[in-house]
């Protein structure tokens, strides 16, 4: 069995903490067993490890999330990165070709696909082996995990089993699906043993490889990457699940929740205040999550979420937070905060001038022992001011030590990198006519290799 964790998302539902680079699964607002803050992806990865399944797991993601995943989970994660964002069918197809062509996985191997942000208890992962058993026993094309509903939810999709499929069977044959019904319809479906669809499913690798062959799409990974932009932008549900003739569902009668909006996420946050702020005694069922350095005070409001980050400030009735994505659908603001494999950065200020110049100021944190890639920019000059810590800088082949108080000029086209000997903080001022994150050419990632390049 191989497990493919899907990590994607546009980052709008939990704005302003989430953005296009930091989707909801990366927000560190949950607690691990030791009481330390962890993100949804860290929680799932920890649970997979506790279930003894980590050596079977891969993360399928977009290239924009590779840095933050490495930063949160480490550099030994097996990543399958999309060249560009498409949809779940192309993403799963790419993962399938990687397993088939690069890993040599047997066509008879069971592939389990699940979201990386599932909020479940640890026993959920023991159900994954039941998916493999359901495929073998039922002869189905697909096997899904269906969660036993605890109330008639109007925001979840439902799996509809055949009426004769009793709860005493190890799996149920599926006759159809229903997406986000009204309350009365949901109540009626639950009486007929309907299950919540939690987006976890399994298939034999040859199912998807044969679909690719039938559609004259590549089955070799490198060729799939080259043609990825021409693949149909369609979900796996529409392209595969709805066309499957035989589907089985394994029942799960345990804890499962979709933490996709602020009102559901705050139900699992065990403290009302994260960051600087004050909540009055007259305030009921309110949460403040503040990533800014200025305090937030909430007085007399109830059932609200107040979230603040460099990307913006949200004050909302919790019941209305599912509408946040729709409210922001036309927003094109660049992310003002990002996590990377080496640390994180925050945009402090951005200005444009009548002559076309742009000036952007960043605070950059590089964790001890980590380094930026060896890189250069074509559209901007940079001035670095080291404000805390010690490290080493490579600038156009020269290596020098830096510490708090040092100032360096990094002109356009200059090849540069920095490594933190201790936690290192730098204030960077960029000046140019087009200040975008895409203006970067990476030459090398590993510090030992960077240092060797300096000697040539």
From TrEMBL:
Residues 3-268 form the Nucleotidyl transferase domain. Residues 291-329 form the MannoseP isomerase/GMP-like beta-helix domain. CDD domains: cupin_PMI_typeII_C. One of its GO terms (molecular function) is mannose-1-phosphate guanylyltransferase (GTP) activity. It comes from Cohnella faecalis. It holds the Pfam family MannoseP_isomer. Signal peptide: none annotated. This is Cupin domain-containing protein. InterPro entries: Man6P_isomerase-2_C (IPR001538), ManC/GMP-like_b-helix (IPR054566), Mannose-6P_isomerase_type2 (IPR051161), NTP_transferase_dom (IPR005835), Nucleotide-diphossugar_trans (IPR029044), RmlC-like_jellyroll (IPR014710), RmlC_Cupin_sf (IPR011051). Residues 340-444 form the Mannose-6-phosphate isomerase type II C-terminal domain. PANTHER family: MANNOSE-1-PHOSPHATE GUANYLYLTRANSFERASE. One of its GO terms (biological process) is GDP-mannose biosynthetic process.
